[in-house]
Design a protein that fits this description.
Layout lengths: L19 E3 L4 E5 L4 E3 L2 E3 L3 E2 L2 E2 L2 E11 L2 E4 L10 E3 L5 E3 L8 E9 L5 E3 L4 E6 L2 E10 L2 E9 L8 E6 L3 E7 L2 E5 L4 E6 L9 E2 L10 E4 L5 E2 L4 E6 L7 E6 L7 E2 L2 E4 L8 E8 L4 E3 L3 E3 L1 E2 L6 E5 L10 E6 L7 E6 L7 E2 L2 E4 L8 E9 L2 E9 L6
Parallel strand pairs: 2-13, 22-30
Antiparallel strand pairs: 1-4, 3-10, 5-6, 7-8, 7-11, 9-10, 11-12, 11-13, 14-15, 15-18, 16-17, 16-19, 19-20, 21-23, 23-26, 24-25, 24-27, 27-28, 27-29, 31-32, 32-35, 33-34, 33-36, 36-37
Length: 382
């Protein structure tokens, strides 16, 4: 078999005259990031004419520049990654996908025509260890993911080591592999017998917000003037955005997971809803009731019948006050220690001048009391 030597060189017959290079093997598949050894065997005659043949230089190359081979050690693409070993072996460290090429060995002797390049060379292909999430399922305990780990350089049933969060070796098994992960776990795989791992995969499953849960900051009853905070939470990925609404009000109250009342007022009583939303969906919480307790407001007093008070009629004084919890009422007359009546109404039958004077309605509950006066005078005879 004839081979062409680089321009200016002699043409030798492979296996004749004692010049040869063989490559065992001639095809290699290496895992990305590993170290690969390229092997060869070469021979040359002991003598050419009067010259005793001695090898003066050995190189491996993939490229030529100005018709001359470029030594891997001088190739910037391989800087710091080449190690020549005894004989004609070479080690390429941290193999990259860009290293895939045909590699040839060339040796140079002290004879003027004693330069030889072995063809066809070694064909190197490079493949990464690739992890792929085939399918996943959200469960209460986490995310059940089925994954495969493969490399084109390895047989289908080659065993793989599965790594969680960079250190926890889950198991050694052939692909595929199933495992339940927590949110944001990091998983990678490595082929058994090789140190190089796949790219890290984040278990980052997208799902809509769960049913929002509303919690509160107060231990018991809500009292007017207190500070109150409602907090909304929902499990979601991507994380949920929150909006607060009040029942029967069209516009939202605020955005964010917290709804804060620095000094809650009686007008803040009502049902509140939290809406959790991400790009996949939105969900709304159950209504959360804020029942603000407060002392009675200034009581409002009315007379029945209204108008002029005539002697001898039956007159009812009524009292009402806004309060929570509902107020109890007590009627007093000025300068008298004993209450006139308990309840919202005070009825005076057959009213006379002795009933003239200043009366007070006192509204009271567990949060306080408030009273209003009403004066009965200018009683007219019928």
């Amino acid at each position: 078999l004839l081979i062409n030597i680089l321009p200016g060189l002699c043409i030798f017959v492979l296996g004749q005259n004692g010049w040869s290079v063989t490559y065992p093997p001639s095809q290699i598949c290496a895992i990305k990031g590993s170290t690969v050894d390229l092997q060869c065997n070469y021979t040359h005659p002991d003598r050419e004419g009067d010259t005793v043949i001695e090898v003066t230089n050995r190189i491996w190359f993939t490229k030529e520049q100005l018709a001359a081979p470029v030594d891997l050690k001088a190739d910037p693409d391989y800087a710091g990654r080449i190690e020549y070993k005894n004989g004609c072996a070479v080690a390429i460290r941290d193999v990259r996908e860009s290293d895939a090429a045909v590699y040839k060995f060339r040796f140079i002797t002290n004879h003027p025509s004693g330069k030889y390049t072995g063809s066809p060379g070694v064909t190197l292909s490079v493949s990464a260890v690739e992890l792929q999430v085939v399918k996943w399922e959200r469960r209460p305990s986490g995310t059940l993911a089925e994954m495969t780990c493969k490399s084109k350089c390895l047989p289908d049933r080659h065993p793989y080591i599965w790594i969680k969060n960079g250190q926890n070796v889950l198991t050694q098994t052939s692909s595929p592999f199933s495992h339940t992960f927590s949110f944001a776990d990091r998983v990678s795989c490595a082929a058994a017998g090789h140190r190089q791992t796949s790219k890290v995969v984040f278990i980052d499953v997208k799902y809509p917000p769960s049913f929002p849960v509303v919690s509160h900051s107060f231990p018991g009853e809500v009292v007017e003037g207190n500070s109150v905070t409602l907090t909304c939470s929902a499990d979601a990925n991507p994380g949920a955005n929150y909006t607060w609404h009040k029942e029967h009000e069209a516009n939202p109250l605020s955005k964010g997971p917290k709804l804060v009342f620095k000094s809650v007022q009686s007008s803040d009583s009502g049902k509140y809803f939290c809406m959790a939303e991400n790009v996949l969906n939105r969900t709304t919480s159950d209504g959360f009731l804020i029942d603000v307790e407060y002392a009675p407001k200034l009581p409002l007093v009315s007379l029945s019948p209204s108008g002029e008070v005539m002697e001898g009629i039956s007159l009812t004084l009524s009292c009402i006050s806004d309060s929570n919890p509902a107020a109890n009422y007590t009627w007093f007359k000025e300068n008298e220690k004993t209450p006139q009546s308990s309840g919202q109404n005070l009825t005076i039958t057959n009213i006379g001048r002795q009933h003239s004077g200043l009366y007070y309605c006192e509204a009271h509950n567990s949060r306080g009391s408030h009273k209003s006066p009403v004066k009965l005078d200018s009683l007219h005879q019928i």
